[in-house]
Amino acid sequence: MNQDAKKYRFVPLEFERLDEDEMLHRAQAFRRSVATRRSVRSFSDAPVPREVIDECIRAAGLAPSGANRQPWTFAVITDPVLKAKVREAAEKEERELYEHRISDEWRADLEPLGTDWHKPYLETAPALIALFRHSYDVEEGRRKRNYYTQESVGIALGFLIVALHAAGLATLTHTPSPMGFLADILDRPKNEKAFVLLPVGYPADGCEVPDITRKPLDEIRVWS
Ligand code: IYR
């Protein structure tokens, strides 16, 4: 299989070697920028420019992926009718989750964040990005394998969240559970599995977020 696959042409890497002061400066600037990113659950209904979202998806599409298979689809939903359908289906699953499926430990862990099954932001946010993972692809009628799809799509999601934040937009990393309804509503092919649903927009006026802390470096990093 794949005996006729051509090797890539190799080209010089575009790479700028920075001096160490500049490296630290840029690392600090990036860290300060991502430090202001928060998961938002209260959105304004103000529309967001399509080209900004497209540009951020372009950035997400630059993420590394197993064998460069790029096993992802970013489905952007702005149609109010579709958003209402998504909300209805998500709330149905989430109600079931919160009322029956959730373990006591999980419920206790979510309690301080104050989340529940109500997901009004799925209609309020001007755009929802449903990210689909291609467990495989179909090429010329044949099933083509993808590799490390969870890792690849997870990295692309990270790029996307950071790109949207850099563009001045807020997101929520929402994982309705289970989320098979997204593929149904959006009519995605069978090889695509919903990975995450990302409401995107501006925070509502007076939006509040929990005053969480992040683990200090000493707790998350070991050198050897
Ligand atoms: N999917 C649910 C529950 C939930 C789970 C985790 I882990 C969170 O960090 C937040 C919520 C929901 O979206 O409410």
Shape: globular
Order of helices and strands: HHEHHHEEEHEHEH
Sketch the major β-sheet.
Answer: 4 strands, antiparallel
The CATH architecture term is: 3-Layer(aba) Sandwich
Mind telling me the CATH superfamily name? Answer: NADH Oxidase
What is the mean predicted local confidence, pLDDT?
A: 96
Q: Work out the number of β strands.
A: 6
Gyration radius from CA atoms, angstroms: 20 Å
Q: The CATH topology is what?
A: NADH Oxidase
The share of residues in extended strands comes to 15-25%
Strands of the largest sheet, in order across it? 1-2-6-5
- Which small-molecule ligands are present, each listed once? 3-iodo-tyrosine
- Low-confidence segments, given as residue ranges, are none
Which key phrases capture this entry?
single chain, 224 residues, alpha+beta, NADH Oxidase, 4-stranded antiparallel sheet, two-stranded antiparallel ribbon, 6 strands, globular, binds 3-iodo-tyrosine
3D architecture notes:
- Helices cover 39% and strands 15% of the residues.
- It is of the alpha+beta class and 224 residues long.
- It has one domain (43-203): NADH Oxidase.
- The strands form 2 sheets. The chain has a 4-stranded antiparallel beta sheet.
- It is globular.
- A hairpin with a 2-residue loop joins strand 3 and strand 4.
- The structure holds 3-iodo-tyrosine.
- 3-iodo-tyrosine is lined by residues 94, 110, 115, 174-177.
Question: What topology does this entry show?
Answer:
Elements: H1 20-35, H2 50-60, E1 72-77, H3 80-101, H4 104-110, H5 121-124, E2 127-134, E3 136-139, E4 142-145, H6 149-166, E5 170-171, H7 180-185, E6 192-201, H8 217-220
Helix pairs in contact: 2-6
Bound molecules: 3-iodo-tyrosine (IYR).
3-iodo-tyrosine (IYR) is lined by residues 94, 110, 115, 174-177.
